[in-house]
Write a structure and sequence with these properties.
Blueprint: H1 2-23, E1 25-30, E2 35-40, E3 44-46, E4 53-58, E5 66-74, H2 83-88, H3 92-101, E6 108-117, E7 120-133, E8 136-149, E9 152-161, H4 162-177, E10 180-181
Antiparallel strand pairs: 1-2, 2-10, 3-4, 4-5, 5-9, 6-7, 7-8, 8-9
Length: about 180
Amino acid sequence: MITRFIGIALVCAALFPLESASSEFATYKNSQYGFSFSYPRSWAQEPPRSGLGVIKISSEGGYGDASCNVVVYRAPDLRNKTTPEAVREMSPSVLIRELRRGGINDARVLESGLTKVFNRDAFFAIFSYSIQTMGAIFSVKTFQVITTKSDVVFTFSCGADSRSFSTIYPTFRVIIGSLFIDP
């Protein structure tokens, strides 16, 4: 009897933190591209900065120094490749080339490799670069994950000021780790 009570108490104790933690997150669902992810309720959705952007979320209700962007585009040359094949072709040099093409000339890849994001193989990279805004230069770090589905490329990037990156990085991992792409 006591063992059963302790077991029930442990199960309840384990479940309640999960319920309160999950209530701290909202879910974004995109039916057009078939993906979803969770993010802190205190963050705000904003219009994406690029034409390929689908959604942008920002910390502190849109006034913080951390944000995540999802970019989705078609790459017809991937049509006959599986996701693992496409992901294996991704590399730091490909990422640097794309960043430079976008005007980020001082990007450095700090860490990269293959990973899984919920239900898909993916390539990840953590990189740093500088941006100039309002007359000041800021150092930024970004955690980026790229995966594919048929000929569609999903790029999920979360970045922050380099000084606060290590503090917000665990939240970025939860957000990106929740990415689900419909089978």
